[in-house]
Amino acid sequence: MFQWFCWPCVTSNDFKMPGGARISFNNVDSSLSSLKNCQSYINDGMDIATRVALDLVESFNDVEDVNSMEKVMIEFATMDRELNHYIRAIEETVNQIKREKPENIPDLKALVHEKFTAMESENSDSDLQKNEKYVYFKDQLKQMRKQFCHKSGNGEEAIEQIDEDIAVTQSQMNFICPITQMEMKRPVRNKICGHTYEEDAILKFIQTRKQQKKKVRCPKIGCSHSDVKGSDLMPDEALKRAIDSQNKQSW
């Protein structure tokens, strides 16, 4: 997939080999930067696919339509894995050359291909299912179905067969931020403990504690997670849609 990667000419003086030859890694660094930009495009595609899937659940489309978006996510996850392996192969090859300092300039392309092929040979379907964006996709679909299934009129899909009034009350309780004690407008979910907070509130909380050089305990009562980090927070699109839907109904 990534055979368009351009190897550098070796006329610069960035790295001197023991035999006197000089090799430049400037072009390699530039190409690596381009490959990493590709990762952002893949991530954008996975975000779009997730939103489309949630739209389908919210509008009660066929399960087959939702499943088709899951297949799209798997395809993106496959591309992401392949790209990560290619980047790793390049980085490891460059580091190996700098570390070993061979007498003659090696065949960089062949070395990268060898490492890349070895990584790809260990691929498994479980790798794809561990992709962070795919895990998020599955979690959001699950949450979305919980929030909206009681509206479909299908008793078999009701939230664990709980009485609808109780289910709605429980949902409304989940709409409240444990920090502000107000209904959330931009909820984010902690991927470590699973609790949700208002985005601005938790980020300010984290920043304040950071200035105090203290760790952040999850503000949800009863939660034992004692090191909340901004990098562990992900937008909870399913919950936001459920809150918006509830507010539209109240109007």
TrEMBL record:
Major site of localization recorded for this protein: nucleus
Cite the entry's keywords alphabetically: Metal-binding, Nucleus, Transferase, Ubl conjugation pathway, Zinc, Zinc-finger
State the pathway, as annotated in the record. Answer: Protein modification; protein sumoylation
One Gene Ontology CC term in the entry:
nucleus
Q: Where in the cell is it found?
A: Nucleus
Record's Gene3D superfamilies?
Zinc/RING finger domain, C3HC4 (zinc finger)
**A Pfam family:** zf-Nse
A GO biological-process term: protein sumoylation
Q: Which family does the similarity line name?
A: Belongs to the NSE2 family.
Q: From the Swiss-Prot or TrEMBL record, give the protein name.
A: E3 SUMO-protein ligase NSE2
Q: What species is given as this protein's source?
A: Melopsittacus undulatus (Budgerigar)
Name the gene behind this protein.
LOC101874679
